[in-house]
Fold this sequence. Notes:
CATH class of the largest domain: Alpha Beta
Largest sheet: 8 strands, mixed
CATH architecture of the largest domain: 3-Layer(aba) Sandwich
Number of helices: 10
CATH topology of the largest domain: Aminopeptidase
Number of strands: 17
Amino acid sequence: MAKKPANAKQAARKKAPATTSGKASGKAEKAFFGTTSMDFLERYLNNASPTGFESGGQRLWLDYIKPWVDTYFTDNYGTAVGVINPDAKYKVVIEAHADEISWFVHYITKDGFIYVRRNGGSDHMIAPSKRVNIHTDKGIIKAVFGWPAIHVRSSKNDPTPALDNIFLDCGCATKEDVEALGVHVGCVITYEDEFMVLNKNTFTGRALDNRIGGFMIAEVARLLKMEKTKLPFGLYIVNSVQEEVGLRGAEMIVERIRPNMALVTDVTHDTQTPLMSKIQSGDVACGQGPVLAYGPAVHNNLLKMVIAAATKSKLPFQRAAVSRATGTDTDAFAYGAAGVPSALISLPLRYMHTTVESVSKQDAENVVRLITATLRSLKGNEDFRYIK
């Protein structure tokens, strides 16, 4: 039997929570992502933002970021940009992409079944039995990806999900019934899965790739504003569209802004779960900090500054080699506007391009801290050229 404290004061001291400094405090430690931030993250992730149809999510993002910036603008295809110090000559970009993978209605059979086409890198293997929203001019129409029951499948007839055999059922018996709902070829389709938190430390849901990035760069703007940080350069917080179909939004916006440097954030593969190969994808773990990429598109001098900022701020980080291309908007910035010195700060993520993408809450916080620390280390006149 445990020994009881001698009095109520001793009991209170034993129950008092510890602060980050290790001292006892009667107040709970304030969360880095407060109620306002978490409410935005949930609304932002739950809102559909398929590639080419990002405007609803971009409006949410702009409404959230407006208090932290001096001005903002958008381009013709929907990339949204918040700006701090818009008159400054030296321009720094922090960037994420706003779009999520999805499907298109491709073919409606006479019996009312719907075949689909990818919009981005949607995974046909996870589709069977998933619930979806078909976005129409009349509103959202509910449907499901059907699949033959296990009872009727056999060794001779056990199909593997593929683009030519997955199909949607929206409860209609004919093509005319489907069309009467407002569904037509070209309607975009998203999964209905929503945001949740696992074990108080893991953000999970669809489209964390890469709206969690949009959330993190918005949190950088919030942190700079809350701490009254004065920057000696113009900061462009960029939420780009159409990354999932070839970095298209970033290709457009880099030509408009023509920045002096860019810090891009996206997700990368956690390789600690079953069926993942460290030989193929490297040794990256959720909970161990942001991942800094090495590759031709990543500017070595800028990368050294990011590492120095992480070291000075005692922030954990991991490293990854990305070979000839990062596969992220980093490539569009690095090779656009006559070459923009760029670096990639990635967030480890499990189960990419599924509806249960998962990241560490602590990693997300450390990405925000690392981007902020790097920005604070800049003088606003950096010349990153290798040869001067």
